[in-house]
């Protein structure tokens, strides 16, 4: 029954699920950002950057900030100090990721499309 | 909790009027109509003991789509303990699936069709198949989280309620923590809309009637349901004298702030099942 109990955690507490989803999205965005920075500054391979997915990526970042904010709101209603700090950290990380992405897009704006 | 202090009649008058200006004077005829709809309002109807408890787990979905007061009144006529079923005398059981089950499935199927047929895969050289992919993920999550069946048991013989999800107990507590509540929301033109909600401590709120403007009918239905199930009924305001409290918190009877209700002249519709404190 132990694995069922662990799986059942996914079914009920609303605040933790939103924070966990925001954390997962944060790791995905971080890996995409790391690969983009690597292609921009190190290998100068601008074709491999994620320019074709900019719209979906920005939408995904906004959604992850919303989910992190909702999860932090749920965590503030409980009295668990660890949960509150954790959700707030995830919210701050997602916000920082959004502004990082924005800065990189501004830096790379002239490399987006090459017309010959 | 609502209570009335008989030593302060001015507070009584202040509490008597709701701030909503749309509250009409109760029409004398519709009470007779509702009495006709409930011919057995005084007797409880005990259905035959079923082999499986709660035969209709999807009954709340129709309530979510077409819930007016007449719909609820019609259902109450066929099952007086709606949405519960009476398993034994004084034990009520409700088994249901959340309505996010069909909403999540619908979202998942629609996004799956969009992704497989490639309708929104590329817009002006931007790859946008990520949007239906997001929709698929969210729909799948809603569907999976709603698959376990919820079960709410009101056990008056032991004085506890019990909420479990697929056999795993979520919460079990005393009866004063489950109640029927009339919720108020108003729009920008100060028109009031009422919702009848069955909720409790750590329970998922179940909306029985959505967005109705008729206060008296909603209150009648709410009090009827609370009387049948023998739980508390609360009005839309936090402190009002239209609350019907049948179960008090433990030790509340001995707290000095709670005064007894001396007159029940305004409460002629409810039966005398209030706890005598």
From TrEMBL, chain A:
The chain crosses the membrane at residues 7-33, 53-75, 82-99. InterPro entries: TM262. Keywords: Membrane, Transmembrane, Transmembrane helix. It comes from the Eukaryota. This is Cation channel sperm-associated auxiliary subunit TMEM262 isoform X1. It comes from Vicugna pacos. The gene is TMEM262.
From TrEMBL, chain B:
InterPro entries: TMEM249. Pfam families: TMEM249 (PF15158). The keyword Cytoplasm does not apply. Keywords: Membrane, Transmembrane, Transmembrane helix. It comes from the Eukaryota. The chain crosses the membrane at residues 105-123, 129-148. This is Cation channel sperm-associated auxiliary subunit TMEM249. It comes from Vicugna pacos. The lineage of its organism: Eukaryota, Metazoa, Chordata, Craniata, Vertebrata. The gene is TMEM249.
